[in-house]
Amino acid sequence: MTLPDGVEYHVFGDSGDDDEGDGIEGDGKGDDGPGSLATRGEPVYGEPTDGEYRRWDPHRSKLGAMLALGMDTGLAGAETALYLGAAAGTTVSHVADFAGPTYAVEFAARPMSDLLDATESRPNLVPLLKDARQPATYAHVVEPVDVLVQDVATRGQARVARLNSQFLREDGRLLLAIKSRSEDVTRAPDDVFDDALDDLRGEYEVLETERLSPYHEDHLGVVARPTADGTL
Ligand SMILES: C[S@@+](CC[C@H](N)C(=O)[O-])C[C@H]1O[C@@H](n2cnc3c(N)ncnc32)[C@H](O)[C@@H]1O
Questions:
Q1: ipTM value
Q2: How remote is the CA of residue 71 from the centroid of ligand 1, in Å?
Q3: By residue range, what is the domain housing residue 193?
Q4: Which residue has a Cα nearest atom 25 of ligand 1?
Q5: Residue 99: inside a domain, yes or no?
Q6: What is the pLDDT of residues 160-178, one digit of tens each?
């Protein structure tokens, strides 16, 4: 697996709580060396740091889990990114550490102040207090992007990804985490994932899927690319 430029494995030492035993160090599919996934930037969520490195905790980040599990995200670094479901900035701050312009959409006002704090040292991180189900409300701000990252814990996650495909370049990637319980707590996760993948098709070609356990239970990581029609 290739990590994007700006993301690497770094040994934080004892206090850094490196990922031994989590399936990353030594035997993880995504093992690019010893230590823990890290980017360089100001800390955001109390994560361990070592100089300019900050640990990217895959237990707290679906995209971090996708990278730690060795999924082929297609990320190279310096991409233009649209992130849906930014919350307080845990994951999108790591994205902004290695990406170019990074638009962060979040509709809840409460986590916004933490997200704004994360933007202070990241001039490339653009917070948008918007509903990801209404892309027309931010279409005038967001330029075409190389990667659409989505982690919205809401019903209709595939629909949200379809609605936002308009921003994705033809050769871009959708990196989606689907949470089965947000769709229907009563159904088997595999059935929920099958329906969501069916819903994506037409707008996206699914390239890879992987359950995000042991980091996130009942979540599916999806890498997809837009189909030719209707993209920028
Ligand atoms: C699981 S949390 C995201 C965690 C975040 N991605 C991270 O790793 O740091 C899901 C977030 O999606 C947001 N959300 C849910 N539905 C949304 C929508 N329609 N538009 C924008 N944000 C939404 C929620 O408010 C919540 O903050």
A1: 0.99
A2: 22
A3: 81-226
A4: 108
A5: yes
A6: 999 999 999 999 999 999 9
Q: Are 37 and 55 in contact (CB under 8 A)?
A: yes
151 annotated as ligand-binding:
yes
46 in the same domain as 160: no
pTM over 0.90: yes
Which runs of E-coded beta strand occur in 42-188? 49-50, 53-55, 81-84, 102-106, 125-129, 145-150, 168-179
Based on the fold, state whether residues 32 and 89 are members of the same structural domain.
Answer: no
- Domain of residue 118, CATH code: 3.40.50.150
Q: Is residue 164 part of a domain?
A: yes
The total number of structural domains in the chain stands at: 2
Q: Is residue 231 part of a domain?
A: no
Q: Strands 49-50 and 53-55: what pairing?
A: antiparallel
Q: Say whether both 44 and 101 belong to one domain.
A: no
**Is 89 contained in some domain?**
yes
C-beta neighbour count of 145 within 10 angstroms: 24
DSSP-H helix ranges across the chain:
62-68, 90-98, 112-119, 157-163, 180-183, 189-200
- 119 in a known ligand binding site: no
Task: Specify the ligand 1 atom closest to the Cα of 88.
Answer: 9
pLDDT digits (tens, 9 = 90+) for 130-144: 999 999 999 999 999
